[in-house]
Each structure stands twice: as C-alpha cells, then as structure tokens.
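Deliverable D2.4 — example input (structure tokens):
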C-alpha cells in the first residue's frame, strides 16, 4: 500500500507516490472544480492517471488543489476521487495551503503562488491566517500567467508592442484577433489559454519593454497584497509557481529595493510537500 500526494493547479496536476517508488511524477491536466464538471474531472483521472498507476493500491490521498478553498468545491473533488478510489482515505486542501506548507514547512512566513493564477497568504506555521488575493483572473490574479497573458494580448491587439516583440509574438503564436477572442470568451479554460502567452516574456528577456512589463506586473503583487500585511517586512516572503521561477531575478530585485527578506523561490511545491508529509 502506498500514499498519493497531489498538487493540482489550473493548468496541470502532479501526482507523486509516498514513499517514492523510483518513478517520476505522473502529470495530468489540472483539475479545477470551478471550471470543470464532475464528468470532466472523472475523465482526467480515468484517462490520464489510473493507467499510469499500474494497479497500485492507494492507502491515502493528500490532495492540494486550485479552487478548493470553498467547502462545496473541495467536497466535489473529494467525491470524484472517492468514486475512483473507494477504499482510500482522502484529504483535500486548497493549493494555497499546499504552497505555504511546501515553502514554509512549519515556520511562519508569507507564501505567494504565481502560476496560471495567483495567491498571497500569511502562514503561521500550521494554518493560513490571512488570504489577500483570490479574485480570479478576470478581476485579480496580479502577477499570474493569466494576468501577464492579458497584458500581452492587449498590447498586441492595440498595436503597442515594439516591432521586435510583435514579430516574436506572431512567430510564436500564429493567431488572429478573432481566434484570440473566441478562445477567451467562448471556450473553457481561458486562464490556461491566457497563461500560454507568457512564453513571449521568457523569450524576450532583456528587451526594455518586456522587462518593464514583468517588473511592473510583479510589483503590483507587492503593492496590492504584500504591503498590506501587518509587519510584512519582518517575515520571509516565499514564492512558488512558474512565473515566480522564471522571473525570480525580478522578485529578488523588488525585495532588495524595499528591504524585504526574500525566502525560497521554487517552481513547484511537490518536493517541499513530500518533505512536509514525511
């Protein structure tokens, strides 16, 4: 019997056995109870996860997932998992707690997740005691992949990108205004779609316009959220998520400019969560 540890964002989910069985993580599409139906989630598990488990018996599932802060949503995910693993003990938590546990372990700190979406929480070493974001990609998610994707698309469609950056955009994405709007307004998983445009920022590092966009977007995380935390300058500030990882030099610069204590910056929480649960 083994346990299964899960870290699921809006874009992808990572599944790892505990103890590790000399196998790499299993990756599937992300599971998100706000954007997917019960049937959609079941299909992901049936088609992408279960065939990879090779009929291993699962004793416990520790699941950390996007969209699981509300009790009804976490229960929905738990019920889907329980249906597929009927004899397994299952615990479902929000991905925010997963990020905090991975980054801070059992110490106090500020934990920021900047991936497809974004969250900033204060963690007391055991629980989240303050949550300062969470408006989603339409109204918030400052510093997230979806946030930067919106900025890039706006600048492209308003013809505000510098010529070299615009040329790179067209080379990378080969799309049109109609296709962009159709994907955002008519198809599911718009946040995931938007986040895909961040590849432009990674490819164009060093361009003044791109560097300004990255710096200003990440600074907004501090201005709208971190600076509102009581005694924020006395706590280590940790970051996880793909945006955090690829632009960690900018996060370090912003922390240095504001005399803040930058803590851990990791691409994904899994290794930290394994350490927490062992």
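Example output (designed residues):
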């Amino acid at each position: 019997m083994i346990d299964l540890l899960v870290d699921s964002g809006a874009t992808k989910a990572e599944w790892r056995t505990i103890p590790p069985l000399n196998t790499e993580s299993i990756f599937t599409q992300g599971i998100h109870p706000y954007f997917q139906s019960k049937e959609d989630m079941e299909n992901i598990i049936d088609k992408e996860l279960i065939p990879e488990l090779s009929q291993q018996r699962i004793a416990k599932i520790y699941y950390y997932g996007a969209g699981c802060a509300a009790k009804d949503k976490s229960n929905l995910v738990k019920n889907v998992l329980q249906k597929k693993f009927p004899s397994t003990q299952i615990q479902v938590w929000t991905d925010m707690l997963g990020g905090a546990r991975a980054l801070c372990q059992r110490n106090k700190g500020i934990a920021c997740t900047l991936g497809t979406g974004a969250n900033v929480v204060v963690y007391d070493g055991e629980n989240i005691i303050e949550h300062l974001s969470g408006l989603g990609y339409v109204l918030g998610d400052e510093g997230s992949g979806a946030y930067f994707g919106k900025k890039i698309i706006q600048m492209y469609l308003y013809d505000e990108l510098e010529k070299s950056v615009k040329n790179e955009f067209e080379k990378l994405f080969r799309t049109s205004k109609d296709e962009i709007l159709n994907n955002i307004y008519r198809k599911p998983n718009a946040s995931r779609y938007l986040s895909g445009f961040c590849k432009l920022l990674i490819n164009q590092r060093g361009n003044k316009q791109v560097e300004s966009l990255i710096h200003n977007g990440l600074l907004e995380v501090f201005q709208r959220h971190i600076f509102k935390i009581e005694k924020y300058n006395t706590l280590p500030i940790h970051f996880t998520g793909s945006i955090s990882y690829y632009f960690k030099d900018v996060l370090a610069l912003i922390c240095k400019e504001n005399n803040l204590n930058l803590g851990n910056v990791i691409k994904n929480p899994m290794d930290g969560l394994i350490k927490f649960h062992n």
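Residues 2-97+273-277 form a domain with the Nucleotidyltransferase; domain 5 fold (CATH 3.30.420.40).
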